[in-house]
Amino acid sequence: MEQLTTIGLNHYLTISAILLSLGLFAVMTRKNAIVVLMGVELILNAANINFLAFSKYNGGMEGVMFALFVIVIAAAEAAIALAIVINIFKIFKSVDVSSIDSMKE
Amino acid sequence: MFELPSGAEIQGIIASLKASVGFFIPEIYLSVLFMLLILIDLVAKGRKNNLLSITTLLGLAGSIFFIYQQHSMPPGEFFFGMYVLDEFALFFKYFFVLSGILAVIVTMADEQFDREVKSMGEYYALIVAMVIGMIMMASSADLLMIFLSMELVSFTAYILTGYFKRNSRSSEAALKYLVYGAVSSGLMVYGFSLIFGLTAQTNLIKISTELATHGYDPLLMILLTLLILAGFGYKIGAVPFHFWSPDVYEGAPTPITAYLSVASKAAGFALLMRFFYIAVPHGGQPYEDILGIDWRSLLIILSVASMIYGNVVALWQKNVKRLLAYSSIAHAGYLILGIIVMDKFGTQATLIYLLSYFLMNFGAFFVVILIANKTGSENLDDYRGLGKKMPLAGAALTVFLVSLVGLPPTVGFIGKLMIFSALLTKGSLYIWLALIGIMTSVISLYYYMLIPLNMYLRESKQPDDTTFNPGMPAQILMVVLMVLTLYFGLFFTPLSDFAEYSSAMFGIVLQ
After folding, report:
1. Nearest CA distance, B247 vs chain A (angstrom)
2. Residue B15 lies in a domain
């Protein structure tokens, strides 16, 4: 009972593992490029939760700093990704990852 | 929870930053070059005057001077352990600057850019940005720095891959590169977060001491090694993280294909070596593991899978760029062989192999571009009869392909020889790996030799006697690369001396 009522490191880690699995699930099953990228964001945020939780329970600022940089990188990645996806939509009239497959032998 | 630093501490931090900047001059110089190129593009529009490309060439060549000056500096870490300067990093700095220079020259020779895009705009600036990113990848000693530099390289590579905006294949390649890259770097960051939780450190050397003194849970270690390998394996294009590479290599502009296949792969290997040699160097040490699996066994699996898959699937390819993509997967497998040896000789062999791969792969892609300029195609069938129409290009391509197979007297032979002999110095443990390597090289002989076969022994469907002349500068570069490939195949002492000098890594605990 003690385990369930007080929030400890394990709670954070569980949430982050669930987020990672959801992200991977989205990446593997969804066909819309935008949704795939949303799955990637989930994976990155799972890592962020890990960093912050470890930082809180270990002490030290490295984890917080790392999480900040991950957020910045995720924003930059979203900008580039949306630019590429918009370009794809202009050419193929679709953002379905499985239908954009002209090069397979 | 966290206390503010006192005034004296802040003074100390500023002094340390000032001292560190002295070790960072090539990167600062290249960043200035990057911004200068954007400014020049704003002022002087268009590609016709070649202003941008010449500036990039001169700028990159100038950075060699600053890198050369760093030889006199003592190896060490700076910027609070974020960044290191050692012989190993210097090797890769030269490597990346030279591949940037070659990428620019190859772009200038490629006529596809004239058809596809109106202006070269930020293209050259992005190439320089990628050089900076890769240099940082080879020199970073901290998880945060590794992540940031890898993303810098990835982002510029996505944009460069999709540089032909109206071309469907180029855009598709960019999308695939982006999706696979984003997922694998996300997994890698998750792995980093676990290793941070395990050790409460982000510096590689501190992680290593922490792991050695406190021990760790082997199952968790395997899990996070797998996650981190997803990020590194994606950069080096090894099976099973290779799915992007055939499509990206086929769809991207050919100079970018060459650049990615040589430089970005080498950056991945620099990171792989630095991370696993410094942070988790315990391969085969006396401690309990799940089934005795450690990162070295994972790399062995990756290597064998890459060698077999890359070489076998290449047999069916009809597009030369796609064929070279599968061959580059196979070469990633050979390069990993040098890493699993895990000693100074193995590092040296890997570096020599990277140098040889640089010469022969850039050469091969360069000739492919020259041929595509004339025939407008990269299909194997369109190479028929080209040996008579473009005698010099045909001869050069044959030399590069022979070198990619690894036959003497070319530099590719020296690379393979070093890798396999490094494996065999470990006794009988790795003989079977060396055997797989040699047998898959024999398989590769078939598909590489299909190209010269088509060029020399088969007549083209529309026989005509016109000969193509690719122009003087292109011919000079081709001959230089061909001569270097042959020369270093015979007199390889400078290569091996330089690689031996460069195999010194800061903070390494190997024998």
Report:
1. 6
2. no
Q: What is the distance between the alpha carbons of residues B230 and B218, in angstroms, rounded to a whole number?
A: 18
Q: Return the residue matching tokens 């797989």.
A: B436
Give A47's contacts in chain B (Cβ within 8 Å).
186, 189-190, 192-193
pLDDT band of residue B211 (cuts 50, 70, 90) is: confident
More confident call, B49 vs B412:
B412
Q: Give the count of domains, chain B.
A: 1
Minimal C-alpha gap between B69 and chain A (Å):
32
Does pLDDT of B312 surpass 60? yes
Q: Does B495 touch chain A (CB under 8 A)?
A: no
B294, B286 Cβ separation under 8 angstroms? no
pLDDT number for residue B284:
47
Domain assignment present for residue B307? The answer is: yes
B436 within a domain of the structure (yes/no): yes
Angle at B418 between CA B133 and CA B266, to 5 degrees: 10
Other C-beta atoms lying within 10 Å of the C-beta of residue B41? 21
Distance CA A81, CA B163 (A): 14
How many whole angstroms separate alpha carbon B105 and alpha carbon B93?
A: 19
Domain of residue B320 covers 301-511
Helix (H) or strand (E) holding B84: strand B83-85
DSSP B85: E
Decide if B485 contacts B400 (C-beta within 8 A).
Answer: yes
Q: Closest approach of chain A CAs to the CA of B155, in angstroms?
A: 7
pLDDT by residue (tens digit) across B106-132? 998 888 888 888 878 789 999 999 999
Contact between B142 and A58 under an 8 Å Cβ cutoff? The reply is: no
ipTM: 0.95
Instruction: Please tell me the number of Cα atoms within 13 Å of B272 on its side-chain side.
Output: 33
- Is the pLDDT reported for residue B288 higher than 60? no
Residue ranges of B 245-304 with Cβ closer than 8 A to chain A: 246-247, 250-251
Residue B34: inside a domain, yes or no?
A: no
Residue with tokens 């040896």: B341
Domains of chain A: 6-92 (1.10.287.3510)
- Residues in chain A closer than 8 A to B318 (CB atoms): 105
Looking at the predicted structure, is the pLDDT value of residue B283 above 70? no
